[in-house]
Give the backbone structure.
Amino acid sequence: MFDAPHFHDENEARKHLEAIRWPDGPVCPHCGSVGDHYRLEGTGGAKGKKARPGLLKCKDCREQFSVTVGTVFESSKIPLTKWLLATHLLCSSKKGISSHQIHRTLGVTYKTAWFMTHRIREAMKPSVDAGPLGGPGKTVEADETYLAKSPKTRKPKGLPLNAKPAPQVFSLIERGGNIRSMHLDDKNVREALFKHAREESRLVTDGSTLYKFQFMNHESVDHSKHEWARGDVHTNTLEGFFSIFKRGLVGTYQHMSLTHLNRYLAEFDFRMNTRAKLGVNDVQRTSIALKSIEGKRLTYKPVADSLQ
């Protein structure tokens, strides 16, 4: 797999990305025109210099562009081969891959690897026009979890008075469909529930009072009474997802910035939504991620508070 030409040759990498992003021919990111745009690579520019490889000129608006313009790869000096390999590594690692490992594997600095992985996670986010989950006749599970320290490492006398509360992750999954996760607190659960799930769905939760009287068709299991499933009433799908996410947090990333927690959640959501059980392999999952790089930009922000 890793001996594929687009992982080693810049021209092949560009052709590979163009085939994924523009299956029907180049699309101008400035005016949206599709067609036989002019390829300027190898031709003389205004100052007699050769145009850089992959440069095109729109036949309508006359603006210049390349396959990375308007994507998370735009304005990057990192070779496209490294971008494609980093995307494949992040898509094929079930519990994620650390920026330090990307830094060692690709031979880039740690800061560069950190920025690359966050750009790729940004591409993994659902589109802004992604509608709510569920619908008539569909079942949506809802659950929340807290990213607290393990009891084995917690101070025996309890947390200090000025300690920050454990961050909460709220997730919804449509059975047979997609999952959507986000960082929020108890006060925002109801708002998030109605924003990301259709009211006509069948809602399945645990016994938390957060979900009572929210949906007309609502069923729950009482974990406090050791009731984990009653027929198809359970939250086991989300429990399994939380297990994988926490294994990635503890074993791979070790800590996550609260500022970027939603990007990490988008990464794990993306792999869950394109998992092998749905017939998607690593190559196909990477192609899906590369199709989502358009219209998503991310500028540098320093690392903020971390989840220890």
